Amino acid sequence: MVGSCKTCDICQQDLENYCPKVIFTYNSRDQDGTKTYGGYSDIIVVDQRFVLHIPDNLSSEACAPLLCAGITVYSPMKYYGMTEPGKHLGVAGLGGLGHVAVKFGKAFGLKVTVISTSPKKESEAINKLGADSFLVSTDPAKLKESKN
User: Fold this and answer.
1) Strand pairing report for 26-29 and 133-136
2) Which long-range contacts (CB under 8 A, 24 or more apart) does 36-40 make?
3) What is the reported pTM?
4) Which backbone phi and psi does 92 adopt, to 5 degrees?
5) Is 16:4 a contact under the CB 8 Å cutoff?
6) Does the keyword Metal-binding apply (predicted)?
């Protein structure tokens, strides 16, 4: 995002990504009517509310996942209070967003359960990412058992 109206009720609640006049980084119309070209641009003008300073000691490769998948996962976790230790987080799917959700959940001190259609991902979820439990969503007996 490079801009929003900043005046509607949605923007006033810091939910600019839902603004009816949101200006996306790529393929939107900016306030002056010009088209936005995102990463294909030589230069880009962005409202300061949508800019982050990346410290010199953090590489672009390390930072990029946090700015995309990271905020996609963090924002709803924060909004729904899933940043407080002791809560239980269910992560549906262990793809790019799921990996980040497990890592954030564990960093916040949450109990994390990964829910996947693929039993092959259990080892990765538990042993590599530190999830507390794993459920195969196509196993009705295990799903029923997990409700207790």
Assistant:
1) unpaired
2) 36/2
3) 0.74
4) -90, 105
5) yes
6) yes
User: Is the Cα torsion angle 60, 61, 64, 70 positive or negative in sign?
Assistant: negative
With cut-offs at 50, 70 and 90, classify the pLDDT of residue 148. Answer: low
Residue-level length of the chain = 148
The secondary structure of 3-60 as a DSSP string is: B--S-SHHHHTT-GGG-TT-B-SEEEE-TTSPEEEGGG-SS----GGG--PPPTTS-H
Buried b (16+ CB within 10 A) or exposed e, 119-135: eebbebbbeebebbebb
pLDDT of 2-50, one tens digit each?
899 999 999 999 889 899 999 998 899 988 998 888 877 788 888 888 8
Pairwise CA distance, residues 21 & 11, whole Å: 10
